[in-house]
# Entry
Amino acid sequence: MFKNKSGEMSAPQNFDTNAIDRIAEGTVLEGVVNSVKSIRIDGVIKGSVKCLGRVVVGKTGIIEGEVECDSADIEGTLNATIEVSGMLELKATATINGDAKVGKLKVEDGALINGKLDMGGTIKSISKEKNDKVVEKTA
# Structure
């Protein structure tokens, strides 16, 4: 894994960021997965996934742990919390059992989210002063 002086992941200068790492169906990986490029998961990961690119979880893919990435396309199952700075796309066969914090969300009919969804919105407080003013209108 490539880390800069502050400990953050970064791609080396002469690196093909269009290449995709793959975890094939039938593969079970236990531990932490760090990727500076995109990753496709058709197998099982028991642990966390940190990716600077896109995480794609195929229909047979399962992640049991935490996911942190730039964007994600989910067709399989996440038994995990996920944090996506960009777009999270849930296909019809997707299931998320855990909390999701996303920048943008696209959901196909049939996808399931069993957890809390946070899209980063803020709730504005209502001041007491505004509540004390009553405006009456007559017809």
Notes: Residues 69 and 93 are 20 Å apart (CA to CA). The chain has a mean pLDDT of 84.
